[in-house]
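Field reference: sequence -> structure
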Amino acid sequence: MEGKCDVILLDYGFSMFGLRARIALAEKGVTYEFREEDLSNKSQLLLEMNPVHKKIPVLIHHGKPVCESTIIVQYIDDAWHDDFSPLLPTDPYLRVQARFWADFVDKKIYEGGRKIWKAKGEDQELTKNEFIDLLKILEGQLGEKPYLIGDSFGYADIVLIPFSLWFYTLDTVLNMTIEKECTKLAQWVKRCNERESVSKTLPHPQKYCEMVLEREKKQGR
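Structure field:
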């Protein structure tokens, strides 16, 4: 096992993207040093390690940076390879399926959720319905499987599960009924949270909700 100084994660506590890296590291049992970034005053190390985007998360392994959350999760799977608990399937077709649905999360779920907060009145109601439709597409992929790609918790699940914090917040603040309308997805969330890597990494949904409300208040929305 490597020491903490060999693996550093530059991150922010409530980052959906950083949570992915932390769950993947927990799944692999990797010991690492967590360094929380002040996003309004980014550290010199962050700017040096990610000069292109200047964003978190950044995984630093033996002094070398790996940037972008999905790439970080894939790197963790490769760098700490374990035949018994791979994050990406070994079957080539299932691997590309995992990557496809991870891409769907980043391009559709993330953007769909952001639109809800930006919209007002009737437009917000429209975006809320569109978001539910996107979640139902994920339910279609889930089907009767325990996890998105099959019987094992893996890459696609890690990419999506941090956004379950959004589900609680949207239900609480904007009176959405995600858990009621997407029962399979709600069951999937509970199943994922039974894993120690998830339950000990994700902040409590209520705490996350409070953070969002505070942020919205500061931004005058």
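Note: The two ends are 47 Å apart (CA to CA).
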